[in-house]
Each structure stands twice: as structure tokens, then as C-alpha cells.
Amino acid sequence: MSRSGPAWGLLMALIVLCTALLPEAASASVKYSTYTKDSRGNLIWLQPAYFPLGVIGQSLSAPDPNNPNATASSPMKNPKDIFVDAKNEVYIADTGNNRIVHMTETGELLRYISLPASPFNKPEGVFVTENGDIYVADTGNKRVVKLDASGNLLQEYKRPESRYIPETFVFDPGKVMVDERGFIYIAVHGGYEGLVMLDPKGTFQGFFGANRTVLSPLDALKRMLYTKKMYANEVAKRPETINSVATDKNGYIYTVTGGTASTNQLKKLNIKGNNLLRSSSKPFGEIAPWDVPIGPEANGKPQLIDVAVDQSGNMIVVDQQFKYISHYDASGNLLYFWGGASAVGSSQVGLLKSPVALDVNSRNELFVLDDQENIVQVFRLSEFGQKVDEANQQTLAGNYEGSEQPWRDVLRLNAQFAPAYLGLAKSAFRKEQYEEAMRLYQEAGDRQGYSESFWQIRMLWLQNHFSTIASTILFGGFALFLFNKLTAKSAFREKWRSRPRTKNRLLNDLKLSFRILKHPIDGFSAIHSENKGTYLSAAIILFGVYAAQLVQQFATSFAFNQVTFVDVFNTFTQLFIAWIGWVVANYLVSSIYRGEGRFRDIFIGSAYALVPYIVIGVPLAIVSNVLTMSEASLYQFAANAMTAWIGLLIFWKIQNIHNYSVGETFMNIFLTLCTILVIGVLIFLIGGLTSDLFTMLYEMFQEVTLR
Prior knowledge:
alpha+beta; Neuraminidase; 2 domains; four-stranded antiparallel beta sheet; disordered N terminus; repeat; 6-blade_b-propeller_TolB-like; NHL_repeat; TPR-like_helical_dom_sf
């Protein structure tokens, strides 16, 4: 067939049709349940986890150099770090003023710490040990200093000397932490090698907790194809640098990473440097997706800037980009996040302008340092936050029964809080209330727990009914065998075998679609050569595929499908656009690429090739309700077999309808996919231009009518 006007006319018709049917992009739904959104997209906090106690650090004073008997206002300037010691006293690295501010937890100034003999130069980190020693990351002077409790210089740590340190390494300390052994961990600006670890004497012990280099698929392709010389000219890929470091009473070391990292931004390291937080598919299981605190602005990457650990071992991280504070328990389960950006041009208590550091005191009160407002906001746990912490500690300790009442109190305050359902589900599972556990696990979004509960229910049912099932299978099979033997030559079976075949065209065409499953080459050849098949039968099969999609979404077990809302219209629109796009693109390519098939052949054959989706998809959705995740390989095998079967049928359809060789068939498929991509780009461009045109016409109409 030659390139013709009608073919390109169909292409333009497809573009216009798809533009009209293309659904609007849906806004991302909120994943965690501490807030919801109203119809305008504004956040509605269901239950606050923290309440603001007040602001400290905004009215500091110092001796007036012009009048020794008076004081002058001396506000903080661009502070970068905060630390709360064992006595709940607050230390702040006041970077812009080259000093350390020491105050009480209520904000009363105790002193300014400086080194007159060797002044600080833009210090960005501070840490205080239990015995009162003060460590300062003196960034501008490229050193870390150790002071006694009175502020006297005890030791100075500069760039360590070691053959294991690259010559290009620049020692710009940003944050500092000291463990119970006296070992010093220093987060260095631009130090992709990890934390610099020094012993108490300042001897270099190695790099600790380094991040891995993240390579994109393009980088991997370059490594495969480039020569060593070509790859040497590429910009070197380095791991992201660690922004901050903290420790807890158990000696674990916590780091946070921002930059372009999308995973492993928060780490909990043991003494060997092994990360104890591992990603998992369980949404709120023993180890949940803690990698990044996904907030409402899920279209960007959080920039974690600091981490603190409260008295319960919960990890608290602050995101400098979206201004949210996220809380994870000791196992890495996300509990909740809260906060948000303060309005431009105003200060709002509870909201943040530029959070750079945080810490907690012995009462789990949270101190958040803002380097734009030059203040510290103090927060306390609300009743909701206290109940969540109490209940979660019981759950982590394995006392599921003891956690029941606190979790119920949490649900009384916030009926949509998923971790509460998870805690109650674990308690129900422990008490062997498996049906209730299944329901609660589903509410919590935990497919693994749901599957384990169902496994217990199925096992108990099989134990109670095994003899009945085995007897039914045995005697039923034996009875069927006898029936076949005794009636093999009976008149009614012979009459059934010789019954007249229907001459109804539609029924025969539908039978052909199923015969293609066994004899695809003969079936597709019949469509092309014998004019078998009709548009009506193809439309019926397409409707069956659409119905099968709905059945899969509605009937598939929660263990294999987490879809909670089925958009019937959206499902139809997506199926229709994808299928008609394939048909038209394949017809256009075949018209140019020596194809012999007509449009009707492609239309009908493409529909018949989707029959396995009905034959396998519907039974698979039903059978999934008696499977657990331990049989997920069987489910996945059947799903993959269905996909492969459809792919082979499409291949044979193209080959036989267009009379192609194997190589020509592959080329046709490739060109068809490219054409679909071009159609998609054209739809996008025409849709955008049409929208702009209507906007311009509407604005012109308003301009004319308002004058």
C-alpha cells in the first residue's frame, strides 16, 4: 500500500480526538495521615504533633564597648548549629558574629564563648560532651577546637596527616560530633569521602559513613560504550557530602545528606559504619520507607540539613527546602511530619523561614534554629504526639497488648493515622484474631502483614476441611472417570459431537478470536485472506478487555494490588487512547513500509490479540484472593506469561497480516512505537497551543466586554 492522504487524515483525526479525551493531570494524593487537603488544595492539619512553646535568642545583649556599665543589643547573625547539653542548656554556633552563644533553655543568656587569643572565624558546628567539654567546628580557620567547660582552649585539630587522605582533600569542617569513647566525627564541606574520624589525640582513623555514588542510566551506558580516554574527559561523579552528624545514648551515629540524593538521605550507622536502616516494600512495617520524608511537595527532592535523636530513640530530621520536620522511630518507620514555610515578609510561630539545625532536651522539647530569622523556636509534644510516642515504644518493645489503648487514643485524636492501625493489627495478630488483623493491616497499607494474616486463616481453614476436600477430589475424580468410560459410546454423547454448528456470523467471529489462541498463524491469515472477523466482534472483545481491567482493579487481592480508588472513566480513556494510537500508528507505518494489511485487518487483529488479557487476567484476579505473598512468584509468572502471550500474538498478527519476514516485523514494531511517540509529542504541542489560544480569546473577550 502506498502513502495516501486518508492515512495522514486519520493521523490528524487521532491527534484531535486524543487532545479532546486527554484527562487532566491528577494532583498527587497525600500519603501520610497527619493532614489532609481541602477542595482548594490548602493543608488542613488533622492533629498537630507539636505545639510551639515560644521563641528564644531574639533579644541577646552584650557589654557596650562605649559604656562599660551598660549593655547593647547583640542579636545572632546567620547562626548555623544548635546543641542542647545534658543540663538542658543551649549552645548556638553564631556564625556571623564569630562566637558560641550559651544560654538557658528559656533563652536567658549565660555567656558568649570566644577565643581572644585565637578568634573563631565563622564557626558552623558545636557539640558538648557530658563532662562539659565543648567542641567547635571553626570553619573559617579550617580547624576543630576542644574547649573545657570554662571556654579555655584544650586542643586544636587541623587537617590530619595521613597517606590515606587525598592531596586534593580540603579540610573545611561544618559539623562535629564526639562519641562516648572520645572519637571525633567531622562533617566536612565537599568531603565526599565521608566523615573524618579522629581519635581523642587527633590521629586520623579513617573516613566513616561515606555515601555511594549514584549513577544514572546514561552514566552506566557511557561506562559501557566509552573508551578509558573518552570517559576520563567526563566530569567525575562524586558521592553526596554529609550535611550533619549526631549520636544517641546507645552509641549509634546518624547522618543526613541533601544535594541530589534521592535515597539513603538518612542513615543510622553502627560502630562499623553499617547502615541499620534498609529500604523495604512495607509501607509501615518493621522497616518502612524512611529514605526521604515525602511531604506535600512530592514533586521535588527534600534537602535534609540536620538530624537529632530524642530520648525515645526517635529520629527527627529537618528539610531545608520544604521546611518540614519529619519524625521516624528507632526502626526507621515514618511516624509523621509537620511544619511548613512561613509567609514571605512575616514571621509566624510554628512555621519556618530557613531551618538549619535542631536538637531536643531531656523532656523531648524540640529546639529549631532559623538562620534567616536568627531565632530558635521551641516546641513541645502535643497529646497526640505523646500518645504516638508511648504507643510506638510499646509496639517496638513487642508489648502489642500494652500498646492497644494508646493506639486507640491516637485514633480518637486522628482517625486517619495509619501507624495506629498497624500497631492494633500487630496486637490482633498476636491474639490470633486474624480476620481483624487482616482488616487493620489493610487500613495501615501493610500488604505483608495482610498476607501473613490471610495465610493463617487459610491454614486453619485447610486444617479443618482437609478431609472433606481430599474426599471430594478423590471420589469426584473417580466418578468422572467412570462416567467417561460408561458413556463413551452412548447415543447422547454421539449426538452432542455431531450437533449442527451455528451459522451466526458474530458467534463464529468470536470463536475465531479464541481459536487464534491455539492457532495464531491460521487465525490471523483468515482475517486477512478470508475476511473473517468484524468491527462489531472486535468492539465486543475490546469491551471485554476493559471489563477485565476493571475486574482486576476491583477483584485482585490487596496483597497484590493496593488500588483503593478505581476511576472507571479514566481506565476507559487510557485503554482507548493506547489501543487506537497503536492501531493508527501501525496502519500509517504499514502503509509506507510495504504492508499488505488493510485498516480493518489491523483493527480486528489488534483486538483479537488482546484476548489473553480476558482469558488469564480475570481468573488471575479471582485466584489472587486465595494466594499469599509467599506465592507471589506464581502470580507474577502468570502475569508475565499473559504479557508475553499478548506480545507474541501481536508479533504474529503483524507478520501474517502484512506478509512480513521476521526482520521486517521487528522493524515495523519499532517504527510503530516511534510513531506513537511522535503522535504523543504532537498531542502535547497541539493541546498546549489550543489551551493558549482559548486563553487569549477569552482574555480578548473580557477586554472587549469590560470596556
